Amino acid sequence: MPYRYALAEHGRTLATRPLGSELRAQLAEEAAEEQAVTLDFSGVLSVSHSFADEFMGKLAEEIDRGEVPFSARFVGVTPEVERVVRKALERRDVAIPAAA
Amino acid sequence: MDWVKEVGPSGGEGGWRDDFPLDHELPGRLRIDCSRLCLPVHPMFAVRLSVFIDWHRREGRDVQVIPPADDATLRIFDAMGIDADRDCCAEDDAVMPVTRLQEFKDVESVAGRTQEILEYQLPDLSPLGAATFMAVSELCGNAIDHGRNALGAYAAACRVTAPSRKVSVAVSDLGIGVPEHIRQRYPEWGEDGWAIAHATEDRVTGTGDPHRGFGFSAVFEAALTRALHSAEMDILSANGHCRVETVQESRKVRVFPAPKFRRGTWIAYDLVSV
């Protein structure tokens, strides 16, 4: 069972780089013993590009480099949130897949 | 002797028309007469006047503001919270009163609140809520990140319903300014207006981080919704003035001579609904 990380617990809108950085560090600590993580965006109305880059973009790079022990998938995104997340990943040339 | 400034009836037009100097040489008593001011009150006008009031009061000057005589204008004027000495009242068109931002947590708060007001309380502009969220979050984030100064950053947003329906956003700071920031990495971009224009392009940043410099692009991309008729962003900083117009998927960047040197960065962004 993947570890579920609920982003809506930190706000319905997620706007800044420092918040993205804080949540990424929190996730790395909470899921330090996990093999798989589900990033659950249910209830999140919007994310900014800066947040998405700092949280998703850098997390994908950390996964690729083996700096965190888990793989990740995301669920519960609105089309608008998904567009921003995918753009942020594309700009770093990395990927985190959506859960089926 | 007092320094007196009379704001014209169209002081709100784009917010740029009236000059509010941040000048150490002004006398100790300043009076701003807004009695002739008429709607619409652009948020950039509200931000510029608020910065003027706060800056001079910090310098120890006595600043008196005579409010608009017209009732409808007065309601918006007060709802925008321009003068901290006056009571702020609620008014639908004042989506985000002038707000002073000191840290990133303030950006989280104003960006989220602005989107929720647009989406849940103002149905005529709700399709522009996500685009407005992106503008407020990215522009205010830049202002806190790159525009550090003692006063912090300022932001405001209004709804305008005539002649067209739009949401107008204003963000300012008294920091280093876009041209100086960009010239940390691109010293050859000497003309301020073109330095600002380049700063709106992808991956252009003064930070040196190849993954930064997407803020403006993200703002323009987020505006590309079916609900948008057009968008116009004016960026004034130092001696430069750059305007970015978006109509459907085409974007036009123009550079104008700035009427005067402006400390910091001043951004007005209008999203016009279909």
Could you describe the 3D structure shown?
The complex is a heterodimer of chains A (100) and B (274). By secondary structure, chain A is of the alpha/beta class. Chain A has helices at 17-30, 49-64, 79-91; strands at 3-6, 13-14, 36-40, 46-47, 71-75. In chain A, the strands form 2 sheets. Chain A has a 3-stranded parallel β-sheet, with no helix packed on it. Helix content of chain B is 30%, strand content 29%. In chain B, the strands form 2 sheets. Chain B has a 5-stranded antiparallel β-sheet with strand order 4-5-6-8-7. A 3-stranded parallel β-sheet of chain B has the order 1-2-3, with helices on one face. Chain B contains 7 helices and 8 strands, in the order ββαβαβααββαααββ. The chains are: A alpha/beta (100), B alpha/beta (274). The interface between A and B is medium-sized, with 22 and 24 residues.
How do the strands and helices of this protein lay out in sequence?
The complex is a heterodimer of chains A (100) and B (274).
Chain A: E1 3-6, E2 13-14, H1 17-30, E3 36-40, E4 46-47, H2 49-64, E5 71-75, H3 79-91
Parallel strand pairs in A: 1-3, 2-4, 3-5
Chain B: E1 3-6, E2 29-33, H1 43-58, E3 62-66, H2 71-79, E4 96-101, H3 104-121, H4 129-146, E5 153-160, E6 166-173, H5 178-183, H6 192-199, H7 215-222, E7 228-247, E8 250-273
Parallel strand pairs in B: 1-2, 2-3
Antiparallel strand pairs in B: 4-5, 5-6, 6-8, 7-8
Category by helix and strand content of chain B? alpha/beta
**Largest sheet of chain A, order of strands side by side?**
1-3-5
Shape assignment of chain A: globular
Low-confidence stretches of chain B: none
> Using DSSP, what is the number of strands of chain A?
5
Query: Largest sheet of chain B, if any?
Result: 5 strands, antiparallel
SSE ordering of chain B? EEHEHEHHEEHHHEE
Q: Span from first to last CA of chain B?
A: 50 Å
